[in-house]
Specification:
Layout lengths: L3 E7 L6 H9 L6 E7 L6 H11 L3 E5 L5 H11 L4 E4 L5 E2 L3 H11 L6 E9 L6 E2 L1 H6 L21 E4 H7 L10 H12 L3 E12 L15 H25 L9 H17 L9 H17 L2 H11 L18 E5 L7 H9 L6 E6 L16 E4 L4 H8 L5 E4 L9 H7 L7 H20 L8
Parallel strand pairs: 1-2, 1-4, 2-3, 6-9, 10-11, 10-13, 11-12
Antiparallel strand pairs: 4-8, 5-9, 6-7, 6-8
Helix pairs in contact: 8-9, 8-10, 9-10, 9-11, 14-15
């Protein structure tokens, strides 16, 4: 029986799969198997997976029609023979020593861990590469408790390994019905584990999606996804409530530290996942978001509300717009580029901004160069005028009008940093230019292993 089974769900990942496979081929350990599960790819992914299974000992391919990646991972678990299972996205990688380090951690542990947490390196086009600080805080800890607040920040299956006997005994599998089933699986494992342990020298490399890639089903701020996220955090709250009830005396009243942390994290996710994608929400989704946000805010103690204000003050929290129509803008942008093909990538970067309250103007003659998903956005305007900049100044709702001729896509924090700037209005164009150049330089240096101090 191999020590580890690495399960790789595959669906139309021909662009990324070769590097994921390469990271497995070059592992310094040999005591593992790789189970590739193709759920019905229509590109070259099956051929790539089949070639690997034919060439390398311990590599296996399962080809079956499946509704989603959760079903593929369940199928991989049924085929797995390893003592532990590790899930690897076909877009991601693990460093060469990862499985060796995980084996060392398991073999050297006094109590066999049910869940192993290791380091997570995040990278991708348009993002500053970095290690997840929360995984880094847990990875050196030999054993951490169920009440550990950091657990609520690492609810994903990346950078984790799970003891297969534990999964089978607890009947822990992925649900296949909504977009957050992997996070629900991670929570249930961490909540029910007898021992959860860190492993500081194993590294999972997560490739973040670029702004130009279509939104995944989970990242779309739809009513359905919002209800799924609410249900996930409802389950987490109920489990925490029961845990406190069993361990303590009397009925919890909601002010307990861990319950407050659960509520606080759920509010943070509403802000980051939904308010941050303000323009992608329809009216039904926004009304539900607004009501759920306020309900949770009303349950937070003063200390947590103040913490939220410090964390998300740049976004306007703890106060949010009552309706989408109430939104006002930080700035208006007049986009004027020499080449039509530059508009698409730049608009992608605008709608990937962490601070979403802006409006943009383009000349009507270039509207066909704008990606279709943005053309009906209420904060994007096409102007027909012989004097484009004068027309923008006349129609703009914001007090600041930024004229942008440099088509290089923006770092996702440019508008957030502009929002936080205390510079007077007449200097905002200069501040905007300086911020975008500084963030671009910082990202470039960090990707090369260097860094400069934040301003």
């Amino acid at each position: 029986m191999p020590k580890f089974s690495v399960i790789v769900p595959v669906l139309n990942e021909e662009k990324y799969l070769p590097k994921a496979l390469d990271s497995l081929v070059h592992q310094t350990a040999e005591d593992f198997e790789v189970i590739l599960v193709d759920g019905g790819s229509t590109d070259a992914s099956p051929a790539l997976a089949r070639a690997a299974a034919d060439e390398y000992v311990g590599f296996y391919l399962i080809e079956e029609a499946m509704p989603n990646r959760f079903a593929a991972m369940n199928r991989g678990m049924r085929a797995a023979e390893g003592e532990y299972v590790l899930f690897l996205s076909a877009r991601d990688y693990i460093t060469d020593e990862t499985i060796e380090e995980l084996i060392k951690q398991v073999d050297g542990a006094e109590k066999k861990p049910d869940v192993l947490v290791f380091r997570n390196y995040l990278f991708g086009d348009g993002h500053i590469s970095h290690f997840s600080e929360y995984d880094d805080l847990l990875a050196p800890v030999p054993e951490f408790p169920k009440y550990e607040n950091l657990i609520l920040r690492i609810l994903r299956i990346e950078a984790k390994a799970f003891r297969r006997a534990f999964l089978e005994n607890r009947r822990l599998v992925f649900g296949e019905n909504d977009a957050f089933e992997d996070r629900r699986f991670a929570f249930r494992c961490l909540h029910q584990a007898r021992v959860s342990s860190g492993c500081p020298y194993a590294v999972y490399e997560t490739q973040l999606r670029s702004a130009s890639e279509p939104l995944t089903e989970r990242s779309r701020p739809t009513t359905e996804n919002l209800r799924a996220l609410i249900a996930l955090w409802g389950e987490i709250y109920d489990a925490a409530y029961e845990m406190i009830l069993q361990d303590g005396e009397g009925e919890p009243d909601g002010s307990e530290s861990y319950l407050q942390e659960v509520l606080y994290r759920s509010v943070c996710e509403l802000l980051e996942g939904f308010y941050g994608r303000f323009w992608f929400m329809d009216e039904e989704a926004y009304t539900l978001f607004h009501d759920e946000y306020n309900e949770r805010m009303n349950c937070l103690v003063k200390e947590k509300r103040e913490k939220l204000g410090k964390m998300f003050g740049w976004l306007g929290a703890p106060y949010i717009f009552a309706t989408k129509a109430d939104a006002n803008y930080l700035c208006s942008m007049a986009l004027s580029f020499k080449n039509k093909e530059d508009y698409g990538p730049f608009i992608d970067s605008l709608y990937a901004q962490r601070f979403p309250f802006f409006e943009a103007f383009v000349e009507a003659s270039v509207i066909d160069a704008i990606p279709e998903q943005y053309r009906e956005m209420p904060n994007l305007h096409a102007v027909e005028s012989s004097d484009f900049f004068a027309a923008v100044r006349s129609e703009a709702d914001a007090k600041i009008v930024l004229i942008i001729r440099d088509p290089k896509p923006l770092d996702e924090n440019v508008l957030k940093n502009l929002r936080m700037s205390k510079a007077p209005l007449f200097l905002r164009q200069t501040v905007f230019t300086r911020i975008r150049k500084t963030l671009s330089l910082r990202g470039t240096l960090r990707d090369k292993g260097m860094d400069i101090a934040a301003e």
